[in-house]
Amino acid sequence: MTVDSLSLHEAGTIASNSTHVILDAGLITQEEASVIRPEIENYFKNELVQVRTFDKLIEDERSKWMDASYQIYASHIGADRADQVKLYYANYIAKKKADEAKCKEKKDCCQKK
Question: Is pTM, for the whole model, over 0.85?
Fold first, then answer.
């Protein structure tokens, strides 16, 4: 039950963070974000409490969740703009991972002093 509670909280965090990035990039309006965010949150509330094998979890993480988020965006802003969102977010995540890798190379730059 505690895990489910944390998963439900995480669903809200995922929805807020992901729409915030796209909103800050100017790819959606505040009004669009306020409609898209709860739909993404509801989707993840359902997904994160499902029992999966590790292999199924990895498989879903790679495509299922991104595809579902894309469909939510497309239903509100159209496929062309959703394509822009998808590309921007993929680049954003890639840059974030690259920045984290650089930081780990320096070993102590991420530690709080």
Answer: no
Please state, in angstroms and rounded to a whole number, the distance separating the CA atoms of residues 37 and 16.
6
Report the pLDDT value the prediction gives residue 39, as an integer from 0 to 100.
Answer: 97
Cα atoms in the Cβ-side hemisphere of radius 13 Å centred on 72: 23
Tokens of residue 1, six digits:
């039950």
Measured distance CA(90)–CA(8) in Å, rounded: 24
CA–CA distance from 92 to each of 28, 85, 106, 112 (Å)? Answer: 16, 10, 22, 24
**Within its chain, how far is the Cα of 34 from the centroid?**
15
Nearest to 50 by CA among 37, 39, 64: 64
Can you read off the two tokens belonging to residue 22? 């796209």
Residues 39-77: pLDDT tens digits?
A: 999 999 988 888 878 887 777 776 888 899 999 999 999
Residue with more model confidence, 65 or 106:
65
For residues 85, 83, 97, 13, the Cα torsion angle rounded to the nearest 10 degrees is 40
